[in-house]
Design goal:
Blueprint (H helix, E strand, L loop, with lengths): L1 E3 L2 H4 L4 H29 L4 H31 E5 L5 E5 L9 H24 L10 E10 L3 E9 L5 E9 L5 H12 L12 H22 L11 H24 L2
Antiparallel strand pairs: 1-2, 2-3, 3-4, 4-5, 5-6
Length: 260
Amino acid sequence: MKIWISARTKHSNHYALRVLGGIAVSVLLALALIGCSVYLGFYFESQKEVISVGGCILTSMLLIWTALWIGRKAGQDAAIFVQDEKKRLFVIEAGNYVRSRSKIPGYIAMVTDTQKKIDDIKDYVNQKDDLSLFFPQIISVESIKENHTEYYFICRVQLPEGETVRRTCRLVKGYEEEEALLLALEQRRYREQAWEVRENRNPVCILVSGLLLAAAVIVCVLSHPAMGVLPRGIYFPCLGIAFVLFTVMLYFIIRQRRGE
């Protein structure tokens, strides 16, 4: 049996500490950056607006980057790939076996439960029982999309109940003997030739939503009270439309990045 598991959880599992600690550090850094911006704004009062905008942009970039980094590491720690003696390949994501909760206490409970579930999965896998009774098996792979830090592969998996579904899975780079896992996925890529060919409409959707977003932003700027070119009554509606269009564009960008 071959097991691919994050080196951080292979021996000592501190999943909850890493996730919650990473979030706490990112929040403290953001608060420190905000504090520096406020201090500089008072010290250089003539440049207060510029410093305020710059601090807001830097804080947002910091939070987005740390959120992506924490999410990527957490995704790798919670994902386990197993190939048994029959050469069957299983993908096990511990987060899928944890009940969803809301609010901050609920999120902390989810992270803690995920850590416990990782240990349970490791124990079960080491018992070398029939994994198909509890975990999804990768039957065939439609496509593999490589990005800078991870792979996304679209595959068909057979659930323990016997149903076969289409699923997008993520493989974060950094596993030991990662080449062997990629080879196992590639071997399943050609087992089934009857894949339905789907037209990739993501680039067109990204372009259209991006152009509409640009138009909405221009209208927002022109209708802002500081500009006064267009009626100010349309400013907030256009701002809401711009947010919706940004969300739509981001959705298609993520689909394109994942190869869906």
